[in-house]
Every structure is written in structure tokens, then in C-alpha cells.
Amino acid sequence: MEFLIELLISAMIVVGGVFALVGSFGLSKLPDLMARLHAPTKATTLGIGGMLIASILYFAFIERTLSVHELLITIFLFLVAPVTAYLVAKTHLHKNRDRQDTAQFQLPPPAGTHKAGWATFNKSEKQSRTEIR
Amino acid sequence: MIRKVFPHPIMTAVLTLVWMMLMNAFTPATFVLGLILGIILPILTSCFWPDRPTIRNPLKVAEYIIVVLYDIVVANVQVAYLILFRRNRDLRSRFFTVPLEIRTPEAIAILAGTITMTPGTVSSDISTDGKSLLVHGLNVTDEQETVTGIKSRYEKRLKDIFE
After folding, report:
1. From the candidates B121, B125, B132, B150, which should be mutated to test the interface with A, based on the most A CB atoms within 10 A?
2. Which of B60, B150, B52 has the alpha carbon at shortest distance from B100?
């Protein structure tokens, strides 16, 4: 039984390590910033997730204590990863605002018929309404 | 009166639970201290949260979390595959627009976060009227299919939860 648990823990650590490695490799391999954003927001999540599961299993079955810090780390990671990606993407859009030369920098228009821009570049409608007041 | 002490009951519960988890001890002492923090913090920050979002169906929240967790695992494998075995020039990465039906700010925020965490997509911006999201896809072969996938898988569930 002990052996099985240890095997499971080692497997989770290895899987986590592999995914973290792939995520970091993707950072250097992918062609442009927006594509690079995909690697750390996804591949690394499972990487850290695997190691955290291994940690929970270790404390539960080998040390015989319950540790919930890992769950918190997972929750906080899921909360902050999209926000970080969003901020990086926003900065990237601003830096390349005037470069419409390649398809990579051309943004599609928002859905709908009436005129609306992207919130990064244009003021939101609510904001301008309060300004009029 | 109750509204003044508990401007956000869910936040109070979450803060108490998080405090107990941070202390790693589920004892009455941590519960009381967590509850004190859970009451004080929402009152102090209530000016940042003027509206209270309504959650219509708590069971659906659990379902949504399970669906998203499963998709995150799938997303990881897919992105890892794309990173390792696809040459850069074969990647069709580009921006596309996802029209939104949900209007609740909290629901849109959760949807944007979900899109970032799940298969090959990162949400990058919202339109000024709040009716569409700008999404970047790592490898998008059929734009329409990706958009319908997002709408039917996540947006529909969020709509059931919040609206």
C-alpha cells in the first residue's frame, strides 16, 4: 500500500515537472508574444497542479496530517493567471497600436452593428456618459 | 440591519473558510477569528461592491467548476502537444471576437477567466459596450466552431447561474 502511494506521488511529481518544463519551453519556442501567453497560462497550470496533488497525497498518507494549503494555492493560481494574461495582452496591444501592417496586429471589430471599440483603446460608454453629466 | 452587517454573505462565508484553510486548522478559535475578518472586511470594502450578484442555482456552480477543471486538464495536454509537435509556421494563431449574451459583470469576468484557462484561447479585451470579448486563439482552424463551443459550453452555464 505504502509503495503504491509513493508510486502515485512520484508519478504526479514527474507529470507536473514535465508540464512545467513544456510550458517554459513554449515560452521560448512560440513565435510572438500573444502565442507565448498561451504557454504559461495553461501548460504551467497543470504542472503546478500535479505537484500540489502530490504534496496533498504525501501529507495525507505518509505524514498523516491534512494539509489544505495546496488547495488554496490552486484557487489563487486560477484567480491570478487570467488577470496576469489579460494585463500582458493589454500592454501588448497598446505597444503595437499603430502597427496594422501584419495580420497579427489587426484586431477584428466587436460584434454588433453600432460603433463600439475595444475598451483598451476607446473610452467605455458608461464612462463618457458620466463625463457629460 | 442584516444587510448592513452582512453586505455580502457569500464573501463572509468565503473569507471565513479561506482564513481557516490558511491557518490549516479547523478549530473553533480559527472559525471565530475568520468570522470576525469575514464580517469586517466586506463592510470596509463594500463601497467597491455596490451590487450583490445573485446566484440562482448553486448546484450549477458545482457542475461548472467540474466542467472547467476537466477542460483545464484537456487544455494543458492540447497546448503541450501544440508546443512540442507543431512547427511555428503551421500554427494558425489570431484574434477573434466572441459576442456576449450575458450582461452581469461578474459572469463576464468569470467567462473571460475561463476562456484564458481553457483550450488554446486567451481573452485579451472587452468591447466598450460590454457586448463582445476579444479572444486570441493559439491554433484556430474554424473560428465559428470555436465561438459556438465557448458559448454553448461556458456562457450558457453562466447564464443559468447568474441570470
Report:
1. B125
2. B150
* pTM for this prediction: 0.81
Both B90 and B153 in one domain: the answer is yes
CATH number of B102's domain: 3.30.70
User: How many structural domains does chain B have?
Assistant: 2
Kindly report, residue by residue over A69-127, the tens digit of the pLDDT.
888 888 888 888 888 888 888 888 888 777 666 656 667 777 665 566 777 776 665 54
* Cβ–Cβ < 8 Å for A51, A9: no
- Min Cα–Cα distance to chain A from B1, Å: 31
Q: How many CB atoms lie within 10 A of CB A35?
A: 24
Please tell me the distance in Å from B48's CA to the nearest CA on chain A.
17
3-state secondary structure at position B127 = strand
User: What are the cell numbers at B34?
Assistant: 475568520
Question: Looking at the predicted complex, does its ipTM rise above 0.85?
Answer: no
- Read off the pLDDT of residues A51-74 as tens digits, 9 standing for 90 and up: 888 988 888 888 888 778 888 888
